[in-house]
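Chapter review: from sequence to fold.
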Amino acid sequence: MNAPSLLDLARKEIVRTQIDRFRHLYSSYFDQPETIRMATFFFEKVYNLEEKAEWEDMALKTYGKVKHMIKETSRENMERLIELNHLTDTLDFAMGELLISKGWDGNTKLQKVEYDSLYSELGRKSERERQLTIVLLNLQKVYELAHKPIASAVMKPASVISKILGVYPLFRKIEEGYEATLHVKRSTFDSFFKFVEDKEWLYIKERFENK
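The token string follows.
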């Protein structure tokens, strides 16, 4: 296996710093038994770098050929995940390139204040807004799916079909979200959603207030 490039390392450091930000800001949700799986899924597992190559290969080569054979709800969920994955990768790599341009050598941990500065300097506000819009929509859709009375009956055959069609890693993310939110009470989820919505829109506003 080839050693990672400096850009790969920079992107990994951007992701690590972002996850640290989430861990700090949403610490109360990581500490509650009811919400720890949900917080871990939405703030860590969606950034799983080890799965990125498989996702990209599947999105480009396999999914487009079989999407017409997948039920509409599953198809919409997968396509939102593909769009979010692509958008997040694009922005993370762009921030990585900006970090390297500042003289980063691959050996220094990025601090939150430096991450915030890079985020603002990179710009691309409309893409950040789209990214957050998809994240929030995914939150809602996954929770709604998990709490439909027929959800368990729908998930199993959908999982089987996705395996037959060769796109199970895409569907697995939906399953993970389903499993992470299944035992979260509506009131808890609503509180969590509102907190995330308020904090993340505020973060974008603060990063671009002087732009």
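Two observations follow directly from the output. Residues 72-101 form the longest helix (30 residues). The chain has a mean pLDDT of 82.
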